[in-house]
Automatic annotation (TrEMBL):
Beta-galactosidase domain mapped to chain residues: 370-564
Protein name: Beta-galactosidase
PANTHER family reported in the protein's UniProt record: BETA-GALACTOSIDASE RELATED
Enzyme category, top tier: hydrolase
Keywords: Glycoprotein, Glycosidase, Hydrolase, Signal
Annotated Pfam families: BetaGal_ABD2 (PF13364), BetaGal_dom2 (PF10435), BetaGal_dom3 (PF13363), Glyco_hydro_35 (PF01301)
Tagged with keyword Glycoprotein: yes
Similarity comment: Belongs to the glycosyl hydrolase 35 family.
Listed InterPro entries: Betagal_dom2, Betagal_dom2_sf, BetaGal_dom3, BetaGal_dom3_sf, BetaGal_jelly_roll_dom, Galactose-bd-like_sf, GH, Gly_Hdrlase_35_cat
Keyword set includes Signal: yes
Signal sequence residues: 1-19
GO biological process: carbohydrate metabolic process
């Protein structure tokens, strides 16, 4: 039973009226408009981040600080059951698997957390987050099956306890917990599985609302107690992904919620397009995707989502990161950059900054949070090519006109006027005769009317609002627009009587008379019209500060606005003092640096932290009485008021040593063969004997010449390369071997008989088959009398995501095998050292290593002694099909105090599969003939920027041509240099001897 937690005191405090709670806590409540936190209505503006996709743990702080600086107030965190629970009874929430640490970093940055803990998450990760061992269970996954229930319970209860400890009622940032993901895939009514998960959360102390991510516009509403979560939402990826063409915005989310869904809930998008993933073998590239799903796309699609009345939005992904080790599902390659706002290498640009503009606006537009849905219409615009929603806050009268092209993918330049209704009457704006509002190509515009902030009401602004805020008792409105757009932007303050006028080509305000000139950056003939109306043209690169009565109006070219920041000034006390709105309404306007991470004022010292990418003019607008000195990253900076009255100083960019830093050339490689297993003398007696004669994996009917089944998950191998050795006793008549091999899309396999190469097979891309059937002939002379061994090396591109209850359980391994000519075969299997139960590397975890001999022996780890190895480079490569392992070390001495983004860049190769190890971490899989990835970002922390580094590559020549035997280059390159960053710890445990077999 829910209750209506209305109370007079809430109303008196301006709190959300008629808020509904889940009856367990009133710290997080909701109504049809929005969520409220501690009685404060908020627009949840959140970004998706998977901490486990950023194994350099220290950098979680970087992402969290960027998210907060980027105008978000929340993060959404998937947890990965498979990583955290690699074997039955083994729970590991340490290091890169620590949900708790990620939550604490979010809290430090002032971000609310939506914990999306599965058990199944999808997310283009192996098994969709479910571990290989669950695939072998006699259970239908994602149902209330007793065996499956038993399987998820230990993880789930442990995770619930972590969340309970860090939920808002306990002083933590966790406000929402998502149960399952896109459960309509496996829809059952009632959803007893959902009920079980929810009950377990509750009995382990989670009281915050539960949520669900509904797959698109599919109805999965359940009656209370039969699987209903407190707040469900709709995921949606409109716009046509990374393809260069745009498809239309979606305009029926709100209808869906109100007709098929639940009209008492706010409209929630737990995943809204923040980019898209890219498959093996594509021609795509994430930089192009980031440009397509870029600033214009964000403006059009995100404002269209606002127009649908969404007040809870999470962008998937905000930082995608890296599918290092075996994290990827077969649908993606190593990079999970996703074209997201923060690129994989963490170097932010226009996409991030445009979302910041939207985020800061939505943060400061308090009245937006209680606006009602109004269908988009073309009746308010003079041009039918422009559509607008008119979203009004019935309590305050504030109104938001969201303008876009009627055909949302249009690239036309269209101009229109707009009819608005305000407290002071109806107007057609712009009022200046002949002026129009112009959408430039892919564009949209949020126009405010009766927009209240501080003591000021903006009657309307045709320029986009960046923010309105009160700093030291002065109301500041920051607006922006494109110089090429409107000939005259209009900003009208209600009831302001101060007059603007010009004097000697410099524009002044009458009151206060001491206002400084705003310079020649803005101009308009009629700027000084009749008192109330600021009518101006924005010039390229322009910024202008006007005093209008007691209000400061800062008008900016949008490209200049992107260099603006409004960090939260933490309150002096309170559990949530660093949280925008709920903890602190105070902000300061800072412009210039590539990033402003944090700001605080204590004892009249304004302490700013952030990054610069060049010598930068720092500007602080307003509040100059609040501080008497300024520090940047802890060091005092001297400055003073500039010509337009901003406090200004010069910040150093990166040092010349940092700018000229060049990592050493990778040279002095050592080499050793990594495929001793093909030798007839190789001793596989300690390998696992394939003995299963039945399986709960999905094992297709295939010819098999013995009853043993070779589904590798059944033997504890879920990741990376797996080796199989099939023994048969020859009668001399065998002609070849049939193999049906499943490694997931884009896998490869190679086979040898008694050390003689038989051939290889490759699945070419994500639309190719995940199982390949080959019949390989035995070359004459290869058979021996007695024991013969077929050695098969195959990789596993990750376990399938959900594709029905049997699709996810698809057996990886050798699903069909038959020696042509009669003989029965018996098989031995070897994968990663120790399998999923006894893997030795507890820091890097169960998915870092596969089953190559080099990996089993730990040759990829720093500290291994390769001094007796042959000198040979990966460019010299191999001489025949097989696997070689190459190692080298080098010192790095990166100037400190800088964030230097580096990547490994591969070139060349044919049917060549390379795994890249950096200080023991498997940071990339380069498949030369599939691509598309050639550049592999590796962060500080994995790389030791102030010490010795070990780089290793396994090189698998899958084919028999010389181009398959080698790559043509591998180097470490600098992507970007910033002064700043966060302090990074290195934790790269070194080699110790393994009893390899
Ligand atoms: C949505 C999943 O919920 C998410 O985990 C991820 O896989 C995302 O897709 C794609 O990157 S599912 C939605 C596309 C139907």
């Amino acid at each position: 039973m829910r209750f209506w937690a209305t109370c007079l005191s809430a109303l008196a405090l301006g709190r959300a009226a008629f808020a509904v709670s889940n009856n367990l806590t009133t710290d997080v409540t909701w109504d049809p408009f929005s969520l409220s936190i501690l009685g404060q209505r908020i627009f949840l503006h959140s970004g998706e981040f998977h901490p486990w996709r950023l194994p350099s743990r220290s950098l979680w702080k970087d992402i969290m600080q960027k998210a907060a600086a980027g105008g978000l107030n929340g993060v959404s965190l998937y947890a990965h059951l498979g990583l955290m629970n690699p074997a039955p009874g083994v729970l590991d929430f340490d290091g890169l698997r620590s949900m708790e640490d990620a939550i604490l970093e979010a809290q430090a940055a002032g971000l609310w957390v939506t914990a999306r803990i599965g058990p199944y998450v999808n997310g283009e990760t192996t098994g969709g987050g479910l571990p290989g061992w669950m695939m072998s269970l006699n259970a239908t996954l994602r149902t209330n099956d007793a065996t499956y229930t038993q399987a998820w319970t230990p993880y789930w209860t442990a995770m619930a306890k972590i969340l309970a400890k860090h939920q808002i009622t306990a002083g933590g940032p966790v406000i929402l917990v998502q149960v399952e993901n896109e459960f309509d895939n496996v829809r059952t009514t009632p959803a007893t599985y959902m009920v079980l998960l929810e009950q377990s959360l509750r009995s382990n102390g989670v009281v915050v609302p539960t949520t669900h991510n509904n797959k698109g516009l599919r109805d999965i509403t359940y009656a209370a107690g039969t699987g209903a979560v407190d707040i469900w939402g709709i995921d949606s990826y409109p716009g046509n992904g990374c393809a260069s063409s745009w498809s239309a915005v979606v305009t029926n989310y709100n209808d869906f919620k109100n007709t098929s869904g639940n009209p008492t809930l706010p409209l929630y998008s737990p995943e809204f397009v923040g980019g898209w993933f890219d498959p093996w073998g594509s021609t795509g590239n994430y930089a192009a995707c980031r440009a397509k799903i870029g600033p214009e796309f964000e403006r059009v699609f995100y404002e269209a989502l606002w127009a649908q009345n969404a007040k809870m939005i999470n962008f998937y992904m905000y930082y995608g990161g890296t599918n290092w080790g075996g994290l990827a599902a077969p649908v993606v390659y190593t990079s999970y950059d996703y074209g997201a706002a923060i690129p994989e290498n963490r170097v932010i640009g226009d996409k991030f900054n445009e979302l910041k503009l939207l985020g800061l606006f939505i943060r400061s537009a308090r009245d937006f949070r209680q606006t009602s849905f109004a269908p988009e219409v073309t009746t308010l615009t003079s041009s039918a090519d422009v559509t607008t929603a008119e979203m009004r806050n019935a309590q305050t009268g504030a109104t938001f006109y969201l303008l876009r092209h009627t055909t949302s993918q249009s690239t036309a330049t269209v101009s229109t006027t707009l009819k608005i209704t305000t407290k002071d009457g109806a107007f057609t704006i712009p009022q200046t005769s002949g002026s129009q509002i112009t959408l430039l190509g892919h564009d949209s515009r949020a126009i405010v009317a009766d927009y209240q902030f501080g003591a000021t009401r903006v009657l309307y602004s045709t320029a986009a609002v960046l923010l309105g805020t009160t700093i030291d008792g002065v109301d500041w409105l920051v607006v922006h627009g494109y110089p090429q757009a409107d000939a005259g932007y209009e900003v009208v303050f209600a009831g302001v009587t101060g007059r603007l006028h010009d004097d000697d080509s410099q524009y002044y305000c009458e009151s206060p008379t001491s206002s400084p000139p705003f310079g020649a950056l803005l101009m308009h003939d009629s700027i000084c019209q009749a008192g109330l109306l600021a009518n101006f043209r924005i010039t390229a690169g322009g910024r202008a500060l006007l005093s209008v009565g007691s209000v400061r109006l800062l008008a900016l070219d949008t490209t200049v606005a992107r260099t603006f920041w409004a960090p939260v000034l933490p309150a002096s006390s309170g559990t949530f003092k660093q949280f925008a709105e709920v903890g602190s309404n105070a902000t300061i306007i800072v412009a210039g640096p590539a990033l402003v991470r944090t700001a605080a004022i204590t004892n009249k010292v304004l302490a700013l932290t952030g990054d610069t990418n060049r010598t930068t003019t720092l500007q602080v607008y307003g509040g100059s009485n609040l501080f008497s000195s300024v520090t940047w990253n802890g060091a005092q900076v001297s400055g003073g008021l500039d010509t337009i009255g901003a406090w200004s100083a010069t910040l150093d960019g990166p040092s010349s040593a940092a700018l000229s830093f060049v990592p050493p050339t990778l040279a002095a490689w050592k080499f050793k063969d990594s495929l001793p297993e093909i030798s007839t003398t190789y001793n596989d007696s300690r390998w696992v004997t394939a003995s299963k004669t039945s399986t709960f994996l999905t094992m297709p009917a295939y010819p098999r010449d013995t009853s043993a089944l070779l589904g590798e998950q059944d033997y504890g191998f879920f990741t990376g390369n797996v080796l199989f050795r099939g023994h048969f006793t020859s009668t001399g008549k065998e002609t070849g071997v049939f193999l049906g091999i499943n490694g997931g899309q884009a896998f490869a396999a190679s086979a040898w008989l008694n050390g003689v190469y038989l051939g290889s097979t490759t699945s070419f891309n994500s639309t190719d088959s995940d199982v390949k059937n080959v019949t390989l002939s035995f070359p004459s002379g290869a058979l021996r009398s007695g024991d013969n061994v077929v050695t098969v090396l195959k990789d596993n591109m990750g376990l399938n995501e959900w594709s029905g209850p049997s699709g996810i359980k698809q057996a990886r391994g050798i699903v069909g095998f038959q020696v042509q000519g009669g003989a029965n075969s018996t098989w031995k299997i070897q994968g990663n050292f120790g399998g999923n139960t006894n893997f030795p590397d507890k820091v890097r975890g169960s998915l870092n290593e596969g089953g190559l001999f080099a990996e089993r022996a730990g040759w990829h780890l720093p500290g291994f002694d390769d001094s007796t190895w042959e000198s040979r480079t990966p460019v010299q490569g191999l001489t025949k099909p097989g696997v070689g392992f190459f190692r080298t070390t080098f010192d790095l001495s990166v100037p400190s105090g800088h964030d230097v983004a580096m990547s490994f860049v591969f070139r060349g190769g044919g049917a060549t599969r390379v795994q890249l190890y950096v200080n023991g971490w498997q940071m990339g899989k380069y498949v030369a003939n599939l691509g598309p990835q050639t550049v592999f970002p590796v962060h500080e922390g994995i790389l030791d920027y102030h010490g010795k580094n070990t780089v290793a590559v396994s090189l698998w020549a899958v084919g028999n041509s010389t181009t398959d035997f080698a790559i043509s280059d591998l180097q470490l390159k600098v992507d970007a240099v910033l002064r700043g960053g966060v302090i990074v710890q290195v934790a790269n445990p070194v080699w110790s001897a393994r009893d390899v077999f």
